[in-house]
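Hi all, a correction to my earlier message: I attached the wrong file for Lipocalin-like domain-containing protein. Here's the right sequence:
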Amino acid sequence: MQKLAATFMCLLLITISFSACKKDRSEESENLLIGDWSEIGPDGQSLFLKFDKNYSFWFSSVVGETNMKYSGTYSIKGDALKVIAAEMSVQEPGKPVQTTAVRHDVFPEATYSVSNDTLTLTYQTYTAAWPVVPATVKFRRMIID
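and the right structure:
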């Protein structure tokens, strides 16, 4: 009877071990955001995103001659994306970089999709004329070694 119980216990432990490992691998492979992205869009403005596997990000924008960078964390749930900046750095021409702690939702109420090498973000933005305006921006995956 003890051999049967020991055998059953070993099989149970092996089953738990394999199912736990399988779950971890599938979670990593489902995060299609991981990587470096550049905006597909109009001239005069450059946007860059980087999503890390540890759920940190940075977002860089160049408008005219002013550089801005946000960094913080992100989370995903289904196709919903939450990107929260914890720090903002700004560099204007001829001035030193100014870094400030912030708590800012970079892409409010965002959803995302990844198809091949294209990331599409849809989110809500605000303007002076209208309180909420839907916006869509597309990024292309960058190859960086």
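Sorry for the mix-up. The longest helix spans residues 2-30.
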